[in-house]
Design goal:
Length: 256
């Protein structure tokens, strides 16, 4: 038996004035299973991501890892961020529903702006806060309001069958500890114009090799059919980074 992503339970108290969140208090509980494993770090990561895209003028958050009689839970894709997003987005939905606020506009009104400071001390720059233009593009391309009108009309006419629509923003903190922040690559250009790439990083279905081919093709102006990826080893690319943290393509791509 092996562990998986440990379940979370989140409790919150929130203050809202004129559609603006003025303060929030979170209490998170994580099922760690029968041993500690990575659960304390995952809980910390969840508390870092708990703000998602929103500015909380006053913030307090804490949490506990619970020991239970289940297999030990561990790290699993995004390391605590997804349950944090789910907790906060449920909170946003509940507040908007309770106060009869538009779900889209309530979220938009509370988006971070450039110059805001997160609860963990990061001063946000213009390129950190692209939520609103991204949100607007999704609304336009999905014909959100037209779809919403059609769904509301459908629900009025149907008693036992209902439809719904939602648009949820995510602000994922892609990152890796600075000591691991490196990538390496070796490109051999052959006489016939073909190229062989050796690059640190593991392909496990996420499309890593395809991205490396695309980057080399674009930068060198060579068709992808002329570029080949060889098995990587430390005699060609020393000290490769771990393949994780949603950072492998960024580090290795810059190396290429």
């Amino acid at each position: 038996m092996s562990g998986q992503r440990g379940e979370f339970r989140g409790k919150y108290k929130v203050g809202v004035t004129d559609g603006i969140i003025t303060g929030i208090d979170y209490m998170l509980y994580k099922n760690g299973g029968f041993s500690t494993d990575a659960s304390p770090d995952i809980l910390t990561c969840a508390l870092v991501h708990i703000d998602n895209c929103y500015k909380f003028a006053n913030f307090h958050g804490t949490g506990k890892v619970a020991k239970t009689n289940t297999p030990s839970n561990t790290a699993f894709r995004a390391y605590g961020a997804p349950p944090a997003f789910a907790i906060t987005e449920n909170m946003m939905f509940d507040v908007a529903t309770e106060l009869k606020l538009d779900q889209i506009e309530f979220r938009r009104k509370n988006f971070y702006k450039a110059g805001d400071v997160t609860h963990f001390g990061q001063v946000l720059r213009e390129d950190d806060v692209t939520f609103e233009p991204c949100y607007d593009e999704c609304i336009t391309r999905a014909n959100y309001y037209k779809e919403k009108e059609e769904i509301e009309e459908f629900n009025k006419k149907n008693k036992s069958k209902k439809r719904g629509i939602s648009l949820i923003p995510f602000n994922y903190g892609v990152g890796i500890p600075p000591s691991f922040g490196q990538g390496g690559a070796l490109l051999n250009v052959n006489i016939d114009g073909s190229i062989i790439i050796f690059v640190g990083g593991v392909e496990m279905g996420q499309g890593f090799y395809t991205k490396m081919l695309q980057i080399a093709s674009q930068e060198l102006g060579v068709p992808m059919t002329k570029i080949h990826l060889s098995e990587s080893s430390t005699n060609c690319v020393p000290n490769p980074n771990i393949s994780g943290g949603s950072s492998t393509a960024d580090f290795s791509g810059n190396a290429v």
